[in-house]
Design a protein that fits this description.
The chain folds into two domains: 391 residues, Alpha-Beta Barrel (TIM Barrel); 95 residues, Immunoglobulins (Immunoglobulin-like). 25% of the residues lie in helices and 19% in strands. The chain has 13 helices and 18 strands. α1 runs parallel beside α3 and α5 runs parallel beside α7. The longest helix has 23 residues.
Length: 517
Amino acid sequence: MRLYKYLLPSVIIILLFTTSYAQVDTSLRYKISPKREFRGVWVATVENIDWPQQGSTTDQQKQQLVTILQNHAETGINAIFFQVRPAADAFYAKSTEPWSKWLNGQQGVGPTPIYDPLDFAIAEAHKRGMELHAWVNPYRATNDNKYSQLSPNHITNLHPEWFFTYGGQKLFNPGLPEVREYIIKIVLNILDNYDVDGIHMDDYFYPYPIDGVPIKDADTFNKYGGSYTDIRDWRRHNVDTLIQMLSDSIRKHKPRAKFGVSPFGIWANKYQQPEGSDTHGGSSYVENYADVRKWLQKGWVDYAVPQLYWPLNSRAANFDTLLNWWSNNVYSHHLYIGLGVYRVAERSKASIAYKSPTELPNEMRHLRNNPRVEGSVVFSSNSLTHNFNGFADSLSSDFYKYPALPPLMVWKDSIPPNAPQSLVAKPFGKSVLLTWQPPLPARDGEPVYGYVIYRFEGTEPINLDDPSHIYRIQYDTTLSYQDTDVQHGHSYLYILTAIDRLKNESDRTPTIGVTVP
């Protein structure tokens, strides 16, 4: 995840007063809590940004992660982007790459006693009704120039010819076919060995440019450039090729795994590309050679999370301008907006707008009002757990007050399970015990992944589109649930549905009523 960097200095103007750039009436849609919405957060491990704390034992690391996930679940988050490969290393045991130095202080040294952080994170996230996407940095091989501290079996030592050095970092050369094959093997190893819900990549494709410092890939261009006459087009082709190959491979190995990217918030400025946004700043198309718009158009990625880390009053890269541009270029795939909550803690003129406690809630209202936006993702975890500017409180008490299922991806799977059978509800001491039987096999043969329990009190009307009545979203196939949040003498109505891996929802069961004696 790239922290907020640069805009063209000549056009950075931060207004100190509130200016509305909204294209729509912000009093409309945001007030209605949607039943389906992607509510994500990045949990960064690089440099121990979010987890784990330096010097932690295995038990401490587990407890820290449980606390993080529990806090996010209570806030209303339903998806975790867990960084498992920040620099050609691993936060998972079944890797061919060495353990990350940010896990245990030294690259190649695993936790003692041994455990698998990714397995653990998946289980704990699913237990709390949250998806977990394995967040992979594709091309970054080191995060600094301390090369002597790399493990002997780090890929930069095994295949030094695969890398160029830029800004003190070793980076995979995207122009090499063997590099693409290697990265695909790394991703497929994760998919084949872990129950992840998706693969996520952020904006580190080609490196962000440093003035006067060229990328040293001319020899690779001469060897593999083919008919390309412009090295910039060839670089885009290299990244396109990796993304397409990854997309095909992911769908073959795990068809229901989601694949998404989080690019820099500007695809291209209009002065660079006619199809670009009316902005002035760095862009993924020009600087990173990442044509995310094309990937969405071709269907190579299922979702994009552009990092819109500029305020509503920015003149250079206005939040609403970019929000509207991306929503017009998502090509019927999913668009989630990356929110820069970390900017509240920054000390710079460019971050002044984020000091206002209304900035981030207003950004939420604006993205909620855009019908093509399916959700948002916060950078980063600590920003929420520390409740910067009370934003986590705003989410839990307002925007995320009620649970939400992830939005559907009908291009991957549109066939729902059948309804659960034989729902029974009966008093059980001071609680209500629900039991049921699994549904008949689905038309596509996909097994049930979990269940959604709806609860209504007294004479409340039955409306399954109202998320305030979602009582529990369960990501396992347990056939019972004990509702302990009941009161003596009160009557409750229960309805149950089944969900599959992509959260297609079945028809409902009959309504079952019970009165607590």
